[in-house]
Design a protein that fits this description.
Elements lengths: L3 E4 L2 E4 L4 E7 L8 E7 L6 E7 L4 E3 L7 E6 L4 E6 L8 E8 L8 E2 L3 E6 L1
Parallel strand pairs: 2-11
Antiparallel strand pairs: 1-3, 3-8, 4-5, 4-9, 5-6, 7-8, 9-10, 9-11
Length: 118
């Protein structure tokens, strides 16, 4: 079992920045992948950014160049640095962890609200 706790959400004006953090309840250094998803009102959940155990990253086209995902294995924490925020980034952001490539188990955080005002 893995517990994931997100923090760092809030209200920010368009053009501003926020950094989300996802703290895991156990070592993440060998987790196959960790990611951030978001769900905006009336929309389906979408993957925003992903990072593998080897440090490879990928991003949704809508956030490329503005968001950066990183992981600090010493703190068992994954971050999402969000710059140049837009009103359309408003959503609940969820942390996701898939510890093993072969096993099907995945874990989700409870979510943190990000609101970008115009």
């Amino acid at each position: 079992q893995v517990q994931l706790v997100e923090s760092g959400g809030g209200v920010v004006q368009a053009g501003g920045s926020l950094r989300l953090a996802c703290a895991a309840s156990r070592d993440i250094f060998n987790f196959n992948r960790m990611a951030w998803y978001r769900r905006a009102p009336g929309k389906e959940r979408e993957n925003v950014a992903l990072i593998t155990s080897g440090g490879l990253t990928s991003y949704a086209d809508s956030v490329k160049g503005r968001f950066t995902i990183s992981r600090d294995n010493t703190k068992n924490t994954v971050y999402l640095q969000m710059n140049s925020l837009k009103p359309e980034d408003t959503a609940v952001y969820y942390c996701y962890a898939k510890p093993s490539l072969l096993a099907s188990s995945v874990y989700w955080g409870q979510g943190t609200q990000v609101t970008v005002s115009s």
